[in-house]
Amino acid sequence: MAKNDQALPTLEKKTWDDFRNSGLLRFVNMFLHIFGWTIVLNIGNKSVTAYPARCNYDGFSEQDENAFRKLGAALENDKFFKSNMKRRKKDFAKAAKSK
């Protein structure tokens, strides 16, 4: 690591509400639906239950388009996503130069 590079924490604990409100739960479930799976999330007053389940969903609703927009907006403001994308671009550029 260079002297001027600041180390970012690799993990930042978030709540299930954060995950759901960002649109990621719907995005992940849309992918899992292709294989007949889903993540079920029950958020109560004092407890959260999450588990995988089999499903028979074969299509996506009108809400899916809104979920993609919501996810895109969340990623635009996500410092970890931006940092990782910058790092990956540098890695790709370096790999391309070495070929």
Produce a short descriptive summary.
With 99 residues, the chain is an alpha+beta fold. It has helices spanning 16-21, 24-33, 62-76, 79-98, and strands spanning 37-43, 48-54. The chain has one domain (16-98).
Give the arrangement of secondary structure elements.
Elements: H1 16-21, H2 24-33, E1 37-43, E2 48-54, H3 62-76, H4 79-98
Helix pairs in contact: 2-3
Describe it for me?
This protein has 99 residues and is α+β, with helices and mostly antiparallel strands. The chain has one domain (16-98). Helix content is 52%, strand content 14%. The protein contains 4 helices and 2 strands. The protein has helices spanning 16-21, 24-33, 62-76, 79-98; strands at residues 37-43, 48-54. Strands 1-2 form a two-stranded antiparallel ribbon. Strand 1 and strand 2 (48-54) form a beta hairpin. The two termini are 24 Å apart. The relative contact order is 0.13. The model has no long low-confidence stretch (mean pLDDT 80).
Keywords for this structure?
two-stranded antiparallel sheet, 99 residues, alpha+beta, 4 helices, single chain, 2 strands
